[in-house]
Structure formats: structure tokens, C-alpha cells
UniProtKB/TrEMBL annotation:
Gene3D superfamilies: Collagenase (Catalytic Domain). InterPro entries: MetalloPept_cat_dom_sf, Pept_M54_archaemetzincn, Pept_M54_archaemetzncn_arc/bac. This is Peptidase zinc-dependent. Its cofactor is Zn(2+). It comes from Thermodesulfobacterium geofontis (strain OPF15). Keywords: Hydrolase, Metal-binding, Metalloprotease, Protease, Zinc. One of its GO terms (biological process) is proteolysis. NCBIfam families: archmetzin (NF033823). GO terms for molecular function: metallopeptidase activity; zinc ion binding. Pfam families: Peptidase_M54. Signal peptide: none annotated.
Length: 183
């Protein structure tokens, strides 16, 4: 069975949100999932000019702590992330290390000047967590705009897509997991 570990870095989700996230990801990826808090210093990743954190550096710091190369880690932070060449990112995945990262910052309706909305926020968290973990299971961006693996250029794209894999991505995932377990 695949093992996924969600690592919260200086942030948290409500218990009921954690339970829904755990349930959704276990069901989607047929995996055992654990949740922990990771005391990781992410200050090296901070860019003062941008007031954002470079995701690659955070992933690199987490890589130093990861013992099992087969385990997939999803880091969850509540800081604004960016990647080289992009204004911002909701998340990122590094296949070599088996580590993905998502930021809660731009998933909050308040970031866009709207009223807090827990249901919408949780839906966005589920989508981004599912998306980045999908990359760790070798899924690429999907052309189906409703598929959770579709690229999100803005929060509107995230809101338009569903939190589930489309049938094509589900089939690719099944092939990948079948091949892994046959070894």
C-alpha cells in the first residue's frame, strides 16, 4: 500500500477539515495516510522583495528530513508561495523527492476580499491537495477542465474544477498503482 504523509508547517486545519481531507485522499489514492506537524525552518525560502516564499527551497529543506523514499509527503503551509518564473503558485510537486507542497493562503476567500467561507475553503484545499499528490503519482496536467488535475492559473480555475480525478486520470492512476504492486 502507498503511504502518504501530510506535514503541516506552522499552520493547522480544523479537526473536521483534517478528517475530510484524510478521508478524501485515502479514497482517491488508495493509500494509508498520516498527518503530522513538521517543525521546519522555512525562513531561507523567504524573498523580501516579493513577500513570498520559494516553494523549491521549502521542499529542499523537507527532503533532508525524509527517510523513506517511497513515502509521499504533502507539505501544507500558510504562506504565499511562488516558483521561478511565476507570480504565485497554489502548490508544487517534486517527483524526485516525492514531496509536494500546497499553500492555504490563496485558497482563503478572504485573500480575494470576500467573506470567510469554510465550505469553499475546504473544497479548495481538497482540490489542491489532490492535484499535487496526483503529480507525485505521475499524473500530468489534464486537458479536461473539470478534472482535479487540470492546471489552475487562477482561483477561478480551481473553483471550476471538481475535487475528483476524471476517468482518464483514474485509469492512469490504476495502471501506475498496479505496476508498483507487481514489483
Amino acid at each position: 500500500m502507498n503511504k502518504i504523509s501530510i506535514k503541516f508547517i506552522f499552520c493547522a486545519l480544523k479537526d473536521e477539515h483534517l478528517e475530510k481531507l484524510k478521508e478524501h485522499l485515502e479514497k482517491t489514492y488508495f493509500s494509508e495516510l498520516d498527518i503530522a506537524y513538521l517543525p521546519l525552518d522555512i525562513s531561507k525560502a523567504y524573498n523580501f522583495k516579493r513577500n513570498q516564499y520559494l516553494a523549491d527551497i521549502i521542499i529542499g529543506e523537507a527532503r533532508k528530513l525524509k527517510k523513506d523514499p517511497k513515502e509521499k509527503w504533502l507539505l501544507v503551509v500558510d504562506v504565499d508561495l511562488y516558483a521561478s518564473g511565476l507570480n504565485f503558485i497554489f502548490g508544487q510537486a517534486d517527483l524526485r523527492s516525492g514531496i509536494g507542497i500546497i499553500s492555504l493562503t490563496r485558497l482563503k476567500p478572504e485573500f480575494y476580499g470576500q467573506k470567510p467561507n469554510e465550505k469553499l475553503f475546504l473544497e479548495r484545499v481538497l482540490k489542491e491537495a489532490t492535484h499535487e499528490l496526483g503529480h507525485l503519482f505521475y499524473l500530468i496536467h489534464c486537458e479536461n477542465p473539470k478534472c482535479v488535475m487540470a492546471f489552475s492559473n487562477s482561483i477561478l480555475d480551481t473553483d471550476r474544477k471538481e475535487k475528483a480525478l476524471c476517468i482518464g486520470c483514474k485509469n492512469i492512476l490504476k495502471v501506475y498503482t498496479r505496476l508498483r504492486f507487481q514489483k
